[in-house]
Amino acid sequence: MAAASEPGRVAKPDTALVNRLNKQAFVLRINHALQTRQLAKQALRLAQQLHYDRGLLNAHFSLGYYYRGASKYDSALYHTQQALRLAAKLHSDYDRTRGLYNLARIYSEQGDYSRALDVNLQGLALAQAIHNRRAELFQLIESGLVEIPLGEYATAQTHFDQALRLAQSIKDKIGIGGAYSGLGDLNRQQAHWSLAGHYYTAAAASYHDVFNTQGMLPVELSIAEMTDRQGNHEAALAATRDLLRQALEAEWEGPAARAQLLLGRIYLAMGQPDSACYYGKRSLALNRGHRLRPAIRDAAQVLAQANAQLGKWHQAYEYQALAISYADSLTGEDARRRVAGLQAQESHRRQQIQQQLGQQQGRLQTQQQELAQLRYRQQLGALVVLGLLLAAGGSVFFWRYRHRETRRQEALRTRIAADLHDEVGSMLTQISMQSTLLREGRYAPAQQQVYLDQIAEASRLAARQMRDAVWSIDARYDSAASLLDRLRDHAHEVLPPAGLELDFGVEASIVSATVPLATRQALYYIYKEALHNVVKHAHARQVHVRLRLHHQQLELEVRDDGRGLASTSPGRPGGQGLPNMRMRARAVGGTIGLEAAQPGTRLIVRLPLR
């Protein structure tokens, strides 16, 4: 019997296995992206079971790289921020440079160049401080990539040249390829097609020693595009068709959409509008799925021209209108990017002005002291009287202020006590009861293990809820950015483990807002309850979360594709959850609405920002 049970025994996961999985995921991150995701997720699960921070760090890094390459920026941002948190906890400056590099790439690919520049400068300074030449190399390349869309071509050229010299000195093939590819992007932006093609070819030669055919797809597509730009349509067509086949076999949607757009342009130039329409529509569909607006604009432009050649004027007009709408939007963004690029110079000017202002204030202070001495005797009597009046008025004001502050603190303590009693108290009661049952020793070992597992899970949940309560009253987290990070983290902790797909979106104007403590506390607890209800009752597959500003109010929308309101009993949607949420909203002057979403249910919460 013992021999028969050996094949079914499951080996206990250990840190060595986590390290092997993470190493394989990192090696395959470019040549086999889908395998990287599978290996990294497996490593993440094992590391979580072992509470192994180093394993968690590397798994989050790999997932951050994968999701960025797949243009899934919300997930990429989440995993990269988790990796940065663990790197700080482990005091690993090199890992921090890795995280800052990927974070800058995420922001720049989303068009948030102000944040990208800030993060990139932090990463470059840290890489230089720890004297890590490879980390400095990739931060220099990223600096150039961020500066290209800002129109800072000379500065970008300098950074790429520095990166190339550094990569050649340490014989880093990927770094050499990255510097050449950046120089190609710089010349393509300036319509120097021949020179751009030269640099892309040099990048491909360097990458060839380390990448397989899948890893070579992006740079090979750039070479094919430059071939087409120089009028060699036949050669570009043959190369691009082969690259599209490779991208589809690898299930890599980004290069596939890019190849289809290029084929549409080539066929259009060759006078084959039917083929141009075919590939343009496929590219438009993929790019819309990833919300890549520049590519959507270009695909719509190809379709407009192809339909015009076919005499389909109505379709041509519709695609041209689509292209113009995206072009107008991107033009506005381009202006904002340039403003972001000038902020560094403006910051330096402000520092100089502040220094001059400090000197002037010093001289003014000296003059004011001399003037005060001259007027002292004449104004002494008046100041005494005024001081007495101010003291009396200040006493009354201070008494009223202290009275209001006392009432506010009492209300805050009451809310905190209620939250801790409702959420943490029940967990502690459960732990106490189960501990008492175990101490009496009435259960078999298997049942005891079940109770111990339940106690452990209840303890972790109680600790999390305690942290939530502390976070909700900490004034350091009054910014909207901190609130958004907390909401995003909680969604990733709750929904994916329950098998639900998350779509988390935030209106850009919210990031700079300040959220009052009462609103932040109410919104967070309402949000937690809403996600709990979705997981427990909705039977959904996907959850959409949106945050936006609405007439000086912060609006939260939680929408699922579950079974909807029809499945709940009349008058009691969600049990006591909805009444509790409405009570919290009313307490801060907000509102809550619940409606059918066809399919599923939509919850709209509006809370004041003042």
Structural write-up:
This protein is mainly alpha-helical. Among the domains are: 78 residues, Serine Threonine Protein Phosphatase 5, Tetratricopeptide repeat (Alpha Horseshoe); 102 residues, Tetratricopeptide repeat domain (Serine Threonine Protein Phosphatase 5, Tetratricopeptide repeat), CATH 1.25.40.10; 91 residues; 134 residues, Heat Shock Protein 90 (2-Layer Sandwich). Helices cover 75% and strands 6% of the residues. It has 21 helices and 5 strands. The chain has a 5-stranded mixed sheet with strand order 1-2-3-5-4, with helices on one face. A hairpin with a 4-residue loop joins strand 4 and strand 5. The longest helix has 128 residues. The chain is globular, with a radius of gyration of 30 Å. The protein starts with a helix and ends with a strand. The relative contact order is 0.04. The N terminus is likely disordered.
